[in-house]
Amino acid sequence: MRIAVMAAGALGGYFGARMAAAGHDVFFIARGSNLEAIEKNGLKVESVHGNLHLPKPNVTDDPAKVGPVDIVLFAVKLWDSEEAAVQALPLVGSQTRVIPLQNGVDSTERIAPILGTDHVVVGSAYIATVLSAPGVVTHTSQFARMVCGRTDGKPDGRLKSFADAAHAAGIDITVSDAIDRERWQKFVFLVGLSGATATTRQPLGPILADPDTRAFFYSLMCEVVAVGRAKGVSIPENFAEDRMKFADASPPTFKASMLHDLERGNRLELDWLAGKIVEFGRTLGVPTPANNAVYAMLKLHRMGTHTRGS
């Protein structure tokens, strides 16, 4: 298959490298120091499931040089979504499927008007990975899972072909006919993990070990469940308890990407995580005090160390 990775960061780099190693034509879209490092040294993946090194991957900063592909793995930071979608237009042909693998819960709705509602599906990724250096992806979790599907729940032959190819490449992937629930269930844990790890500046283990921070983490997830259910999403009422069990079984060193960004002085995805729950809660009349606290504590950092405030 012809696959474009937009862009070759921690998440896109991992899944794209697995597909390239399996023999597919993968084109990595990158820029800046990451592009330079991949051109010079190739793309490296350090993973608990086995390391990879692609010495000469297809990499460019110009999607127009790639042209239409079968699949676009859309994995840019949330604040870049619309701009990156415009740049990705040359990648989209009549049969292309665009799979957003971003942290937010509304990525499809944001980019579908640009790339086409027939082309953009819904995707979620469950993985702990970080771009530890330009051109180097470090994957630390036992899980590395992808879920995708159409919002209308209908079968999609193009998605099935991709899922079959990804499965053959060793990727844990599912095509779901209930993808709206799937993305909200991922969002429950993501909002809790990002909020708790970024505000405490601690990985998951110490947070779960302390009764106060454990309760805070749980409250963050309960609020996401309440907001999702108020929006009509069929999340079980006790789903936060299920995610606590998942958290207890996760590596104690697990950090959300938002904490990695905070530590590096990068811009934060706060407005699309805790901020989105606060926004939804206000509209729906659902109290979100824990997520309000996260937003207030991190707001002055959300633009990175070089630009503070609004």
Briefly characterize the structure.
The protein is α/β, with parallel strands linked by helices.
Can you put this structure into words, describing what you see?
The protein is an alpha/beta fold. Helices cover 44% and strands 21% of the residues. It has 12 helices and 10 strands. The strands form 2 sheets. The protein has a 5-stranded parallel beta sheet. Strands 3, 4, 8, 9 and 10 form a 5-stranded mixed beta sheet that branches. α1 links the parallel β1 (2-6) and β2. The chain is globular and about 50 Å long. The model has no long low-confidence stretch (mean pLDDT 95).
Task: Name a few traits of the molecule.
12 helices, alpha/beta, globular, 44% helix, 310 residues
Radius of gyration, whole Å = 19 Å
What ranges have pLDDT less than 50 throughout 5 or more consecutive residues? Answer: none
What count of helical segments does DSSP give?
12
* Terminal Cα span: 43 Å
The 3D shape can be described as: globular
Percent of residues in beta strands:
15-25%
Structural class call reads alpha/beta
- The number of distinct β-strands equals 10
Mean pLDDT: 95
Binned, the helix content reads 40-55%
Strand order, main sheet: write it out.
5-2-1-6-7
**Helix and strand succession?**
EHEHEEEEHEHEEHEHHHHHHH
The main sheet comes to: 5 strands, parallel
